[in-house]
Amino acid sequence: MKQTKRTDFRAPLLVGWWLLWLVISQTAMNIAAPPSSIAVLHFVVLLAAFAAGFVFIKKAHRASAPIGRRAISTFPIHSTKVKWIVYGLSLLATILLLTSLQLSGAFTTGFMEYFARLRMDAQEAGGLTGIKILDTLTKVLAFPVSYGLILVILAVGVKPFRLALTICVLNFGLFSYLWQVNYPIIHLFWLAFFYMSSLYVDGAAINRRTMIGLALACALLVLSAMNRFGDGDDQLFGAVQRYVVGYHLIGFSFYDFQLANPNSILHVHTYGRSSLGFLEQFLEQAFRMIGVDYLAASSENAAYNDTAVSIGVSQAQDFNAFGTLAFTFYRDFHIVGIAIGGFVYGAAIAYGLRNLRRSWIAAGMFYLLATAWMMGMMVSPVEQTYFWFCLAFLMVMSLASRRWRIFPLPRRRWERP
Question: Considering all CA atoms of the chain, what is the largest pairwise distance in Å, rounded to the nearest integer?
Fold first, then answer.
């Protein structure tokens, strides 16, 4: 039976999601001071540049005619070597996380006690498990590797790797509990959403199990937020207000505060280093090994933004937050950085989306960039370990699977669209 393609709503959603929260940030739902008109203008520039980059690639890049969903992948899904790689890496991440949970006391400590120890007490390096390198490996290997494997599996097809996908999703849950953070579950939600939306646009039937998984991700987010908010009659409302609405709004106000502060690190430009994120962090660690004192711009940003500042509406309310995408791009090249960064990001997403059914590398890139973009008002994805790690992981998996032509070749002039 021939499938009928449906209206593609993904591009408008990517911009509309940001606009929605930007508008809400000016209402009473924002518990912090609403961002100024100048800060709002910066975010509008980001969105306009994103849209321009998207449209540019859509007009300039003439992709080959769409091909069947099963034909996108020359990835050797039945190769024994590939299965060893996928299952070996996923189980290695599981072992690292389970070992860390055991050493951290997560299995022998009550939830609230464990949560208080991690989120309210100061944690020194290695203070979670007692082994510094193990703490580090959970962040720079276990979570990013599981993320990269999920991207590959969603791109090449879920059916051959259902068990591996289940293990990686479990790893996200283990990591979330180990460090008492919500963002792995939020990532799972958006990954499932964009995977299902791609099926919907292609006219394919949406798997009921995927729908159930998306609903479970939502439920886990709400339950986690309720546990952290505490007891009370307004537990559900308070949790949603603080951990759902608040998370999406605080970045706008925090950026406005830093923009208005002439002494803020935001005004000390890094000329592209902030956007390098994990790549420069890797360089930082390499220099430290040979005794050279070097600090990556993203590490500097993280430490600076961790300091709480008062951005309450009518009274002193201290908040700390992660820098948004605008923070990263502005610190790189001022307002020009926001325009360039937004344009490049929009162009990259457009390329991935246009080649979603032609290249599994492009498909994996789209799922990563789209998911990260939807969280870009909460935290700058390009500064996080998983972002550049996953992009590199996709390329390495391409080489490991003996696919040397990483991106599809452009369509020849004489080929019919």
Answer: 68
